[in-house]
Amino acid sequence: MERTTSSLRRQTSVVRPADGALDEIKRDFDFTKKFELGPEEVLIKTYRARIKNNHGKLYISQNFIGFLAQVFGRKIKVTPVFAKLGSNSLFLRN
């Protein structure tokens, strides 16, 4: 008795992120890399900003605010330090 094997191929499906999701993942990765943050930090919003005639981007996440500019090949990074004042309020320290 001869056995025939059917050629069943496994069907693999590739899960692709929704439109723009890859851009968002890359943006979050670049953000955490630029400011040396952990992967748990998720970028909420970026704004074009200026500090003392240096044009750059202001990055805002849930626990972090940072500014990054590049002027004539020189990178300028500003990360303000916040201190907890009360249960829900923060203030900027000099």
Write the layout of secondary structure elements.
Elements: H1 21-34, E1 43-51, E2 54-61, E3 65-71, E4 74-78, E5 81-84, E6 90-93
Antiparallel strand pairs: 1-2, 2-3, 3-4, 5-6
Architecture overview:
This protein is mainly β and 94 residues long. It has a domain at 43-94. The chain has one helix at 21-34; strands at 43-51, 54-61, 65-71, 74-78, 81-84, 90-93. It has a four-stranded antiparallel sheet with strand order 1-2-3-4. The protein is globular and about 40 Å long.
Tags for this model:
6 strands, single chain, globular, mainly beta, 94 residues
Percent in strands: 35-45%
Supply the number of helical segments. 1
CA-based gyration radius: 23 Å
Largest sheet: number of strands, sense, barrel closure: 4 strands, antiparallel
Taking pLDDT < 50 over at least 5 consecutive residues as the criterion, the unreliable ranges are: none
Provide the structure class. Answer: mainly beta
Distance between the termini: 87 Å
What is the strand arrangement across the widest sheet?
Answer: 1-2-3-4
Indicate the overall shape: globular
Helix content, binned percent: 10-25%
Tell me, rounded to a whole number, the average pLDDT. 75
Please write the string of helix (H) and strand (E) elements: HEEEEEE
Number of strands: 6
